[in-house]
Design a protein that fits this description.
The chain has helices at residues 2-14, 34-43, 61-74, 108-123, 164-172, 191-209, 229-235, 264-272, 275-279, 293-311; strands spanning 18-21, 48-55, 79-84, 157-160, 176-179, 182-184, 217-221, 223-225, 244-247, 253-256, 260-262, 282-285. With 314 residues, it is an alpha/beta fold. A hairpin with a 5-residue loop joins strand 9 (244-247) and strand 10 (253-256). It is globular and about 70 Å long.
Length: 314
């Protein structure tokens, strides 16, 4: 966690636009993101600070709204929260140990979407709780809302969609779209084309819903510019430049996007052909954080220096 803070600080110093963190429970990594997000917010001044993604099957949406509001205020309104139904975890139905279970006739995915809808409603800032007539502190008039409330955070919630159906659902609710390196395999097309179609479905649903603001769309990629011997040793291996297809559970076939690793000139040409990157407005680089802060700062710097300018990303 301390290295994550240091890497976020380094990313800001290098000129990157944000630091986003994955969240997994029952794993020896980050389970509860808000202490880390608040700490990064206190140590930085410019970059976006986000998640990709928080598994809503595990979340109490009101408590989450309190934590998110506090972290967003500490960062000066730079929080970008990616949430989702989650992926297979370390523990079978781990959310049950957190005290949650789907209602009769519902799935765990239904439960996650229900928690998300409550979170969105609470973040809107309308009062809903009956105040105590003898409160410990003076109350404003009317019903009370969850505090601390951070204005504008509701518009900075992203849904991690694995399918066109959930991308459309997210658009209808006014959430931004996160699409990762793993999505449902819904056709025989390559990963980047399926992801581009998902983005197209999201934007069409957004327009149909009539939301006033423009949505944001991010895609995740593993991209490594091979500029020194360390890069070639770690990522210069063959057979990683194709999509992979497999089952993430008993019924869901998924497609996992390729890794991009090449000399900068070749890398630029490869990335120009990725239609999902072209369709998105935000690119999240997945970095191998187990390799330490210094090497990951080098990975980020290599992309910013040797790749991003030629593609118009900067």
């Amino acid at each position: 966690m301390l290295q994550s803070i240091d890497l976020a600080v380094a990313a800001e110093e290098l000129g990157a636009d944000g630091a986003y963190f994955r969240v997994h429970h029952f794993a020896r990594q980050l389970g509860s993101p808000f202490p880390l997000l608040a700490a990064v917010g206190a140590r930085t001044s410019r970059i976006e600070i986000g998640t990709a993604v928080i598994d809503m099957r595990y979340e109490n949406p009101l408590y989450m709204a309190e934590d998110a509001g506090a972290a967003d205020l500490i960062s000066g309104g730079r929080l970008q929260l990616g949430i989702s139904r989650g992926s297979p975890e370390q523990v079978i139905e781990g959310w049950r140990y957190f005290g949650y279970q789907p209602q009769e006739g519902q799935t765990d995915a239904d439960m996650a979407r229900g928690h998300a809808q409550v979170l969105l409603e609470v973040l809107g800032g309308e009062g809903f709780a009956q105040p105590n007539p003898r409160p410990m502190f003076p109350n404003p008039p009317g019903l009370l809302r969850v505090e601390p409330h951070s204005e504008g955070l509701r518009d900075r919630i992203w849904w991690g969609a694995a399918s066109q159906q959930t991308a459309t659902w997210a658009a209808e609710l006014g959430m931004n779209l996160q699409s990762s390196t793993l999505i449902n395999n819904e056709s025989d097309k390559p990963f980047h084309l399926q992801q581009a179609e998902q983005i197209q479905a999201f934007r069409a649903a957004w327009q149909k819903a009539g939301h006033e603001r423009e949505p944001r769309v991010s895609v995740s990629r593993s991209i490594f510019a091979l500029v020194d011997d360390r890069d070639r040793a770690y990522f210069g291996r063959p057979n990683q430049d194709t999509d992979e297809i497999g089952f993430i559970d008993a019924t869901t076939q998924a497609i996992f996007g390729r890794t991009y690793a090449a000399e900068p000139d070749a890398l630029i040409q490869q990335l120009k052909e990725d239609e999902a990157i072209a369709a998105a407005d935000t690119l999240l680089l997945t970095v191998p954080n187990q390799l330490g802060v210094d090497y990951n700062a080098h990975v980020i710097d290599s992309i910013l220096t040797h790749v991003a300018p030629a593609l118009g990303w900067r």
